[in-house]
């Protein structure tokens, strides 16, 4: 039976969600972790995903130190198939590494994002505080007065971060505790 640690519904709730929340990504990760060495072609056959998508995820996993490329070999069709060595085979550890990295990236983005933005009701253009101040809180395009608005993208990122922290905490819990939580819901 396949163990999944991440609720795939989150990716539909948060359209700007991270790559780890995508169901395809999770299938690829689970396929990779169950082997010591794997080729892109064998992943494609087992889960029926485009090689391009597989390669993107493998490159991200390589950046995190989870997999490493071994080499390439030529197939009959003249295409290259790359082989990858799996450095970390514990799926919990893999998800922990990925989610911690995603949380760090969200934190960086949140630090650089203003709490409020200024919005033109006519054009739909948003301005940060400095740009709005430079233009006397008027739209550059139409001259309308800008309206102060809460930065919803920042709120969405905070919610996403909380969900990722919840997922991370559920991964770290012992197996029996996680099973009890599922049965009580």
Based on the model shown, name its key terms.
Arc Repressor Mutant, subunit A; 6 strands; 185 residues; disordered N terminus; three-stranded antiparallel β-sheet; 2 domains; elongated; alpha+beta; 8 helices
Number of helices: 8
Level-2 CATH architecture of the largest domain: Orthogonal Bundle
Give the CATH topology of the largest domain. Arc Repressor Mutant, subunit A
Give the SSE string.
HHEHHEEHEEHEHH
Beta-strand portion reads 15-25%
**Spatial sequence of strands, sheet with the most strands:** 1-3-2
Can you put this structure into words, describing what you see?
The chain has 185 residues and is an alpha+beta fold. The protein has 2 domains: 10-112 and 152-173, Orthogonal Bundle (Arc Repressor Mutant, subunit A); 116-150, no CATH class. The protein is built from 8 helices and 6 strands, in the order ααβααββαββαβαα. It has helices spanning 10-13, 23-33, 40-47, 51-63, 91-111, 129-134, 152-172, 175-184, and strands at residues 37-39, 67-74, 80-86, 116-119, 126-127, 147-150. It has a 3-stranded antiparallel beta sheet with strand order 1-3-2. Strands 5-4-6 form a 3-stranded antiparallel beta sheet. A hairpin with a 6-residue loop joins strand 4 (116-119) and strand 5 (126-127). The radius of gyration is 22 Å and the shape is elongated. The two termini are 20 Å apart. Residues 1-5, 7-17 and 177-185 have low confidence and may be disordered. This is Transcription factor E. Residues 23-160 form the Transcription initiation factor IIE subunit alpha N-terminal domain.
């Amino acid at each position: 039976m396949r163990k999944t640690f991440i609720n795939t519904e989150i990716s539909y709730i948060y359209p700007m969600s991270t790559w780890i929340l995508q169901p395809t990504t999770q299938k690829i990760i689970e396929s990779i972790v169950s082997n010591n060495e794997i080729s892109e072609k064998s992943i494609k056959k087992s889960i029926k995903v485009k090689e391009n998508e597989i390669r993107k995820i493998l490159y991200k996993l390589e950046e995190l130190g989870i997999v490493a490329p071994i080499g390439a070999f030529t197939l009959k069709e003249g295409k290259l198939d790359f082989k990858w060595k799996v450095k970390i085979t514990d799926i919990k550890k893999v998800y922990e590494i990925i989610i911690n990295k995603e949380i760090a990236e969200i934190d960086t983005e949140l630090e650089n994002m203003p709490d409020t933005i200024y919005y033109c009701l006519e054009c739909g253009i948003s301005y940060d505080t400095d740009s709005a101040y430079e233009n006397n809180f008027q739209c550059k395009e139409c001259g309308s007065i800008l309206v102060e608005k809460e930065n919803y993208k920042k709120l969405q990122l905070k919610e996403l971060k909380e969900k990722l922290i919840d997922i991370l905490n559920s991964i770290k819990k012992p197996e029996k505790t996680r099973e009890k939580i599922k049965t009580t819901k």
